[in-house]
Every structure is written in structure tokens, then in C-alpha cells.
């Protein structure tokens, strides 16, 4: 099991310090910058997610390993499969194939976690900050169990679990650097293909024009293909449409689950109960949760 994110943590902290100092020495009135309590909450959420995620990977790896070993029609292990390991061209083909397969899986994972409320209850943590800086990237869920189904097809194809986890870590490492206001739009060909800070600022917007847009991980091509792309225009308002106004990590982690429970127990029909759990965030005029 390979988790490159663990090894990248010192570099993440270093870039947080560099970015914070850049706001101190070169402030920009159009950028929100840092707020100490918010940043501390984000980093606490990040630390907690690593602890929970480490434990969860031990459970999920068994599912992926079983799918890979007993159900996959191919063996795409670039180390253990001698036929692949002996050919640089086949190794490259597997790695490139995994890159695109992982990024597509991330797109649907991300989109599903915005459109199904019980999944949104996990992902909302990442959107709960009203600031947008490198610490926002660290504000991660403490309930990662919802990730497993979206990458299971990769194991069923024949990618070994260790390679899937490695590519996930690489993707998350790339996405860390998307969470900044300090980088403007990049060269147009890059913006056309890659997910960039500009594209991801849109994704973190609570403005009507930006809701449910730009789900991509490393690439933005999936959003263009599936018509969920929105370019950055008007200044982005970060956070939720109904902000939770708390720095308490427990409330940040579980507030939407509590809101779902309140809505379910007060619902007057089973249809409404199902809607509150499996409908999109905002389903039902009286919904009490965040969006």
C-alpha cells in the first residue's frame, strides 16, 4: 500500500508557510488570504483524515485485492507481471492508462459527492471554509468510506491495488496546488486541458453560476466532455450557500450527517426520507443542511 501523500506532508506545510508569508509581504485586497482559526481548523481536519484514511485503506485494500485477483480479466501489475515489466512500452501504456482511468474515476467520485446528499455529507467538509488557500486543500473528510465504489472498476480491469493507491496519492498531491488565489489563469492550452487554480476556484464557489462545476482532478477534459465546465469570471464567493460558521472540527466533520438525520426524522413520507438521503443537496424546500 503506497500513500505518497504522507511523504508530501512536510512539503505541504512548507508551501502553506510560503503562501501565508506572500500574503503578509504582498497583500492583495481582492484575495481573502488567511485567517488563523480557519487555517488551524483545516489543518486539524487534514491530520484527522490521514489517521482515519490510514485505517480505512487497510479495509478497502482487501476489497480491491479480491477484485483484482479473482475477477479481473487482465493482470496489469508493472512489477509482478513479467511480460509487462520487461517492456518499457507496456509499462508506459499501463501507467498512462491508469492515469486517465484514475482521473475519470475521480471525476465521477467528485460529481457523485456533489449530487447525492449522503455522499455530500462527507465531501462538504472540503467546501466548508470561506477562505481559499493551501490549508483549504488539507480540509478533508473524516468519513472516507464513500470512496471505495468509484475506484473498484480499476481493480476489476486489472490494475493492482498498490498502483491504484499510488496514483490516487499523486492526484491528491497535484490537487493541493490548485487551492490558491496567488496564481492567476495560466497559458491557454494548459487551461484547456489541465485543472488549474482558476478552474478549481470556480469549483469552490457558492455563487449560483459556479455551483456543481469543474469536478476534475488533474484534467479538466472530463468537465468539458460532460458539460460541467465553467470558466472563472466574476469574483468567486468561497464556502457554502449556507455557511456553518464554526471552527469546531467535530461540527465541521459531521454537521451534514446531523442535518440529514433531522430532516429524515421530521419527514412525513418515505419518499421524502429517501429524497433527503439520496437526493441532491438542497432537495426539498425545508432541508436544514448545507449546500
From TrEMBL:
GO terms for cellular component: endomembrane system; membrane. Keywords: Lipid metabolism, Membrane, Oxidoreductase, Transmembrane, Transmembrane helix. The chain crosses the membrane at residues 6-26, 47-67, 87-109, 148-166. Residues 97-228 form the Fatty acid hydroxylase domain. One of its GO terms (biological process) is membrane lipid metabolic process. It is a multi-pass membrane protein. It is found in: Endomembrane system. Its main location: membrane. GO terms for molecular function: glyceryl-ether monooxygenase activity; iron ion binding. This is Fatty acid hydroxylase. It comes from Stackebrandtia nassauensis (strain DSM 44728 / CIP 108903 / NRRL B-16338 / NBRC 102104 / LLR-40K-21).
Amino acid at each position: 500500500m503506497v500513500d505518497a501523500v504522507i511523504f508530501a506532508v512536510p512539503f505541504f506545510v512548507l508551501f502553506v508557510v510560503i503562501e501565508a508569508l506572500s500574503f503578509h509581504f504582498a497583500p492583495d485586497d481582492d484575495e481573502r488570504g488567511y485567517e488563523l482559526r480557519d487555517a488551524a481548523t483545516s489543518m486539524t481536519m487534514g491530520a484527522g483524515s490521514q489517521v482515519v484514511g490510514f485505517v480505512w485503506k487497510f479495509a478497502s485494500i482487501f476489497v480491491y485485492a479480491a477484485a483484482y485477483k479473482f475477477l479481473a480479466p487482465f493482470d496489469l501489475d508493472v512489477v509482478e507481471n513479467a511480460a509487462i515489466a520487461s517492456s518499457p512500452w507496456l509499462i508506459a501504456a499501463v501507467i498512462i492508462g491508469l492515469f486517465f482511468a484514475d482521473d475519470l474515476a475521480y471525476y465521477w467520485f467528485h460529481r457523485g459527492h456533489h449530487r447525492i446528499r449522503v455522499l455530500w455529507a462527507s465531501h462538504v467538509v472540503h467546501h466548508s471554509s470561506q477562505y481559499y488557500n493551501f490549508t483549504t486543500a488539507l480540509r478533508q473528510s473524516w468519513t472516507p468510506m464513500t470512496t471505495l465504489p468509484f475506484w473498484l472498476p480499476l481493480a476489476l480491469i486489472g490494475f493492482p491495488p498498490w498502483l491504484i493507491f499510488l496514483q490516487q496519492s499523486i492526484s491528491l498531491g497535484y490537487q493541493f496546488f490548485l487551492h490558491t488565489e496567488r496564481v492567476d489563469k495560466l497559458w491557454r492550452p494548459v487551461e484547456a486541458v489541465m485543472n488549474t487554480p482558476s478552474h478549481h476556484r470556480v469549483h469552490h464557489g457558492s455563487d449560483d453560476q459556479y455551483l456543481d462545476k469543474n469536478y476534475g482532478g488533474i484534467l479538466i477534459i472530463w468537465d468539458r466532455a460532460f458539460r460541467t465546465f465553467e470558466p472563472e469570471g466574476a469574483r468567486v464567493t468561497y464556502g457554502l450557500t449556507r455557511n456553518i460558521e464554526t471552527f469546531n472540527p467535530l461540527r465541521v466533520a459531521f454537521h451534514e450527517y446531523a442535518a440529514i438525520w433531522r430532516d429524515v426524522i421530521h419527514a412525513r413520507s418515505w419518499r421524502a426520507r429517501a429524497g433527503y438521503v439520496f437526493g441532491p443537496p438542497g432537495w426539498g424546500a425545508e432541508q436544514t443542511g448545507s449546500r
